[in-house]
Design brief:
Helix content is about 35%, strand content about 15%. It has about 725 residues and is an alpha/beta fold. α9 links the parallel β5 and β6. The termini are far apart.
């Protein structure tokens, strides 16, 4: 704009000078694109001696296909822990070399998985020793990641949950001199401007949760900026099967747009039904103007890969000899044991669980670890079940308290991120494996986490989830061959066993507890329960039997739903719920690419990022547990040394101290918040704090249970947030 006020400039001079300035500005903000030098496979992926059969097939066959056919979409299906992330990075390298794209946008369904993927991508970029190639992490807890602890938190830094800022392009020169700033993680780390949530999406290498990309196809402010961030890179969608119908429809529309923009895409999954893979590929190809694909299947063999080019929609698959080699290299027997249990909540902490009750069976199954050491996880269906299980085990726990860990979504943000990071480190392939550790959790550890446990107990879940959990059980057995890293009771001749707790009634029939049906469709839980006895008698072989098991429960050809009237009713309920979610999702989607003639078509509805939903019913609020002293002063700590910041200008230190103590809760829980739950008036103008709800604890009596209409909330330092509805 200053150039326009210079009278000596004509149009041509203005244009020439502005282009030069734009190039300098792009470079200054860290947005200039850099091609990574070719390095050997073992250098790019430290710790690997050579590519496996699937990776070698990609490196040998895909370059010729992409060079001849151009951009397209690839699907990779492989067993849990078999190296899909490395395969995706090699595919991205090939696409970038031949399609004119540069960089990677890696999308994952959960923040814990995104944190681990960030470490992988950051290490990959650093291995190429670039002069400067920033890697950014984008999700609503990224400010708690250790690589981002020095990031500035300003009113311009907002997330998908906190609403948009007035200007996504905050100039670092406008920041006050006394703001805290720490150096980034190095040559692969982002400078301060690129660490804002909106800005960070523009970096050449980005790891993000899938919801941030879904916002590109919703009519929210800066949706075009998000689409710009996706274009010009290879987009990797990890665990592409993991979205519900509401979010899946948004992913389909996103893939349609990526096809229209000619962006290469890689889909990864260990448990994707063939129908889902075909639907996702068709959505991409329809955006690339391909028609008449309804009778064509785009499902790769398992394990294997498929590449469908955008120019001709031809499906190119991994060669059969390479598939056989990949299967043989990772073939193992997956042992599953089913334990019928009676489900009952703990209630009073001192209650004794009866034999055959869920809590008693869990304690009995964990005895080898409790008595003789090892690492185990108990995966619970709900947060309330995890809290009950932890309380029950803690009563009889004889070891150090830190050997029994509880982690779930309803603990303070800093504690959750710290615990997950510690587990990834200690239970990883090269971590300092503890002598004994029991982790009580929910589905947080299901996907994309490179960890290994010796024993696992799981509540009944769908077949896809149980297979994902099997991928963490004895994950590094082959890697640790010849090493003494297993407990004394470990059976070295047979694979470890996943114990599944099957809730039954007095007649022995499946009886799902209240609340479980909202996590997964009841029909898939019943179908899985019917399959488990047969799998216990004839253990499945991984990876050979994985795809067949997934299709039996999650595929369109599943025959269970028609066998009984009750199952038919459950299937109908599931289909109705799916249709309703798809209808609600379709209401807010932007049009397909060919039906857009101007930016106005992308904003026929006026939504903010705080109002637009990327998951059904999920518009959380930030809950801040705090303390109230006898004189009414609110503090962040029980001792009363940290008063609640209440001033017009909050420093990054103040913001971080607040945000790391918050946790997300469903908005319905705190809709009827009273005046004592309102934050200080100065927070109302801050986009990161405006929707915060306080949960004060009396600093003397330590009583924190608060009533929000029909919902009662209480913060327990050990168990996290406790909730019950009256």
């Amino acid at each position: 704009m200053p150039n326009a006020d210079t009278p000596s400039f004509g149009a041509a001079e203005h244009h020439s000078h502005a282009r030069k300035q734009a190039e300098e500005e792009v470079e200054r903000l860290g947005l200039a694109r850099f091609a990574l030098d070719r390095v050997p496979f073992t250098t790019a992926h430290p710790g690997l001696e050579k590519p496996n059969a699937l990776q070698a097939s990609v490196m040998e066959e895909l370059p010729r296909l992409v060079a001849e056919r151009g951009s397209g979409i690839a699907v990779v299906t492989d067993a849990m822990g078999a190296g899909k992330s490395v395969t995706a990075l090699e595919m991205a390298r090939i696409f970038n070399e031949h399609c004119g794209t540069q960089g990677v946008m890696w999308l994952l369904p959960a923040t814990a998985a995104a944190d681990q993927a960030y470490d992988v991508l950051d290490q990959y970029v650093r291995a190429h020793q670039p002069e400067y190639a920033p890697v950014t992490l984008v999700h609503h807890h990224s400010d708690l990641n250790e690589a981002y602890t020095g990031r500035r938190l300003s009113p311009a830094d907002t997330s998908v949950l906190d609403g948009p800022s007035d200007d996504p392009f905050t100039d670092p020169d406008d920041l006050s001199a006394d703001d805290e700033a720490e150096p980034g993680p190095g040559t692969a780390g982002p400078d301060r401007w690129l660490r804002g949530w909106d800005n960070a999406l523009l970096a050449q290498y980005t790891v993000s949760t899938t919801d941030q990309a879904q916002m590109a196809v919703l009519p929210v402010r800066y949706s075009a900026l998000r689409m710009l961030a996706l274009s010009g890179k290879t987009v990797v969608v990890d665990e592409a099967h993991a979205l519900d119908p509401f979010s899946q429809l948004q992913l389909l529309r996103l893939l349609h747009w990526l096809g229209a923009l000619n962006c290469p895409v890689v889909l990864l999954s260990a448990t994707m039904p063939a129908s889902t893979a075909t639907e996702l590929v068709r959505a991409y190809l329809s955006g690339a103007s391909q028609t008449g694909l309804h009778g064509v299947s785009f499902a790769p063999a398992y394990p294997g890969w498929l590449f469908a080019d955008a120019a001709t929609a031809t499906a190119h698959r991994m060669s059969e000899p390479a598939q056989d080699q990949q299967r043989a290299a990772q073939r193992r027997t997956a042992r599953i044991r089913t334990r019928p249990v009676t489900y009952r909540r703990l209630g009073q902490a001192g209650r004794t669980a009866d034999p055959g009750e869920r809590l008693a069976v869990i304690a009995d199954t964990l005895q080898p670890v409790i008595s003789h050491g090892g690492c185990a996880t108990v995966v619970c269906a709900t947060v309330a079940d995890a809290q009950d299980t932890y309380q029950y085990l803690r009563r009889t726990w004889t070891g150090p308290p830190h050997d029994l860990v509880l982690v779930h979504a309803r603990v303070r943000g800093r504690r959750r991120q710290s615990t997950l990071g510690d587990l990834r480190h200690r239970l990883g392939p090269n971590g300092p494996r503890p002598a004994r550790l029991v982790v009580v959790t929910t589905s947080l550890l299901d996907m994309s986490l490179d960890i290994d446990v010796d024993l696992m107990v799981s509540d009944l879940a769908s077949m896809a989830r149980l297979l994902q959990r099997l991928g963490r059980l004895g994950r590094f057995t082959r890697l640790w061959a010849g090493q003494d890293r297993r407990p004394a009771w470990w059976d070295r001749d047979n694979s470890s066993t996943l114990t599944v707790l099957h809730p039954v009634n007095l007649r022995g029939a499946t009886a799902l507890p209240p609340g479980w049906g909202t996590i997964e469709p009841a029909v898939t839980l019943h179908e899985t329960a019917r399959l488990l006895p047969a799998l216990e008698k004839e253990p499945p072989v991984v990876p050979d039997d994985v795809q067949a098991l997934v299709e039996q429960v999650h595929g369109v050809t599943s025959g269970f739903a028609g066998e009984t009237t009750r199952l038919q009713q459950m299937a109908a309920t599931h289909q109705t719920r799916t249709g309703r979610q798809q209808q609600l999702s379709a209401i807010h989607l932007v049009p397909p690419a060919k039906r857009v003639s101007s930016l106005a078509d992308l904003h026929r509805q006026h939504l903010t990022t705080a109002q637009a939903a990327t998951r059904p019913g999920v518009l959380p609020r930030r809950l801040l547990p705090c303390y109230r002293s006898p004189d009414g002063t609110l503090t962040l700590d029980a001792a009363g040394w940290l008063p609640l910041p209440d001033q017009e200008h909050l420093s990054p230190c103040h913001l971080r101290s607040i945000l790391e103590r918050t946790l997300p809760v469903p908005a319905a829980w705190v809709t009827r918040a009273s005046a004592r739950h309102q934050p200080p008036a100065s927070w109302k103008q801050h986009p990161l704090l405006a929707d915060t709800v306080l949960l004060p604890t009396d600093s003397v009596t330590r009583e924190s249970e608060q009533c929000f209409g029909h919902h009662w909330l209480r913060m327990d330092e050990g168990l996290g947030l406790l909730h019950h509805k009256q």
